[in-house]
From TrEMBL:
Bilayer disposition of the protein: Multi-pass membrane protein
Keyword Electron transport: no
Organism encoding this protein: Allorhizobium taibaishanense
Name assigned to this protein: TRAP transporter large permease protein
Upper taxonomic lineage: Bacteria, Pseudomonadati, Pseudomonadota, Alphaproteobacteria, Hyphomicrobiales
Record's keyword terms, sorted: Cell inner membrane, Cell membrane, Membrane, Transmembrane, Transmembrane helix, Transport
Classification via NCBIfam families: dctM (TIGR00786)
Pfam families on file: DctM (PF06808)
Complexes and interactors: The complex comprises the extracytoplasmic solute receptor protein and the two transmembrane proteins.
Family (UniProt): Belongs to the TRAP transporter large permease family.
């Protein structure tokens, strides 16, 4: 553990202790980094020349075009949270599925997936569905554990379904394309929706009393009016999803430009629902400013820590420890996911992404792990950070809007089956990497032995051809016929030079 000195382990332990005592993350990281940096300079373990890069790193953070997507996606979610779209979706789909046992739970999962695809924020999804669906589910006999669990879990799908903020941050930290990260998340997101639906189906078959259907007088008739209402809620969502995701996947817009389109689309939807007011815009801007400022401050603190940590050979220490784990890639991934699962009890996903991922990414790359696969896997795992009792943010959001008769203990117990299902998806992604990589477009392989470059000839001569008949190490060169001089008949062309043989001088 101390092959690279005692300072890297001491830095890591100091960072953990600072955060366990409840100090703000950004100041904890910056203070630990600067403190150990001064110790390293005094003891000769760290060069002060490293600190010259700190202002450049700060400038790199605030000038990062990719991170501009965060305020755009945040503002889009904040507007949609207040524009009435979720209410229309939940009411229409609840009545559409209400005739079958578990119908409202199916509607919550379905709407949670759509809200995840158009907002990318957990708070908006959980609070909206908790305010609208939870009273209805409890009124008509749903189990408190099932009702609270399905709402909290469906809200956390926003972390995995594009345009997730977590995927944007992970792509930045891993140095990968946001579009590729979004494409890679499609498979696990679809599997998660499927396993949630199967769980409700199993409950409705074996314990139908826990998820009764809605009475007919509540759900009404399945007629054209109801279908029109469902479509009126879905079609704007589909258009907005295309504006945000379709333009990224088709290469028509960068994530930042797609986020800007999403904000415009959200404003149009709010106006269509007659909810577009200055109060709504001001609240959305305040929420966006708060989250964006938090992200930038955590990034500034983490770059102070990581600069000193790497200057102390901390990255080599982490790589030395984790590269020797038994089991190769699978052993490393199992350890990392268990480690992040435990960290998520105490740290927010922003903190994990900015602190832990930069330490683990070089080791993953050294072991030959596809970083898109690695990033999506970490994202699936970090979903559980929103569901962990007692610190899960989704549980806090739900507690804030749940009726008084719903006890906190019921919310915590209700989250356990859904955490287990999320961990099943983690295991599937570990042992079936194609669930991620099959969606990502691979770069075309080029056979270098077949590369041929043709250059126009000189004067009256022929063209020049560069081709590697025996591989790139033995190219054949043909400069064609030299131009005539003074009208004289040009000499016969010499055969092409064979550079695979030593030159002869005559």
């Amino acid at each position: 553990m101390f092959d690279f000195g005692i300072i890297p382990p001491a830095m890591f332990i100091g960072m953990v202790l600072f955060m366990l005592f409840g100090f703000p993350v950004t100041f904890s990281l910056g203070a630990v980094g600067m403190f150990f940096g001064l110790i390293g300079i005094a003891t000769g373990h760290f060069s002060e020349a490293f600190l010259q890069a700190l202002p450049l790193r700060f400038f790199g953070i605030v000038s990062n075009d990719l991170l501009l997507a965060i305020p755009f996606f945040t503002m889009m979610g904040a507007i949609l949270e207040r524009c009435g779209l979720a209410e229309d979706l939940l009411e229409g789909t609840g009545k559409l599925f209400g005739a079958v046992p578990g119908g409202i739970a199916y509607a919550v999962i379905f709407v949670g997936a759509i809200l995840g695809a158009i907002t990318g924020t957990v708070a908006a999804s959980v609070i909206t569905m908790g305010m609208i669906s939870l009273p209805v589910m409890l009124r008509y006999g749903y189990s408190q554990r099932i009702a609270t669990g399905v709402i909290a879990a469906s809200g956390t799908m926003a972390q995995l379904i594009p345009p997730s903020l977590v995927l944007v941050i992970l792509s930045d930290q891993l140095g990968k394309s946001v579009g590729d990260m979004y494409m890679g998340a499609i498979g696990p997101a679809g599997m998660q929706i499927g396993i949630f639906m199967l769980f409700i189906l199993g409950v409705s078959i074996f314990r139908p009393g826990l998820v009764p259907p809605l009475p007919k007088e509540v759900r009404g008739d399945l007629d054209a009016r109801l279908i029109r209402k469902v479509l009126a809620g879905m079609l704007p969502s589909i258009v907005l999803i295309f504006l945000v995701l379709g333009t990224i996947f088709l290469g028509l817009a960068t994530p930042t430009e797609a986020g800007a389109l999403g904000v415009v689309g959200a404003l149009i939807l709010a106006a269509a629902h007659r909810r577009l007011t200055w109060v709504l815009v001001r609240q959305a801007m305040e929420s966006t400013m708060t989250i964006t400022s938090m992200v930038v401050m955590i990034l500034i603190g983490s770059t102070c820590f990581s600069l000193v940590f790497q200057g102390m050979d901390g990255a080599r220490w982490i790589e030395h420890m984790l590269s020797g784990l038994p089991g190769g890639q699978v052993g490393f991934l199992l350890f990392v996911n268990l480690f992040i699962f435990v960290l998520a009890f105490f740290l927010d996903f922003f903190e994990i992404a900015f602190i832990v991922i930069p330490m683990l990414a070089p080791v993953a790359q050294h072991l030959g792990i596809d970083l898109i696969w690695f990033g999506v896997l970490i994202c699936v795992n970090m979903q559980t950070s929103f569901m962990h009792p007692p610190f899960g943010f989704a549980l806090f959001y739900l507690r804030s809007v749940a009726p008084p008769e719903v006890k906190t203990r019921q919310i915590y117990l209700g989250s356990i089956p859904w955490i287990c299902m999320q961990l099943i998806i983690v295991a599937v992604v570990i042992f079936w990497p194609q669930s991620v990589t099959m969606w990502v477009e691979k770069a075309k392989d080029i056979d270098l032995d077949k590369v041929k470059i043709e250059v126009p000839g000189f004067g009256g001569g022929g063209g020049m051809t560069l081709s590697p008949p025996g591989g790139l190490g033995a190219p054949g060169l043909n400069f064609g016929t030299p131009p005539g001089l003074g009208g004289a008949t040009p000499p016969a062309a010499k055969p092409a030079m064979d550079l695979s043989q030593p030159p002869s001088f005559k």
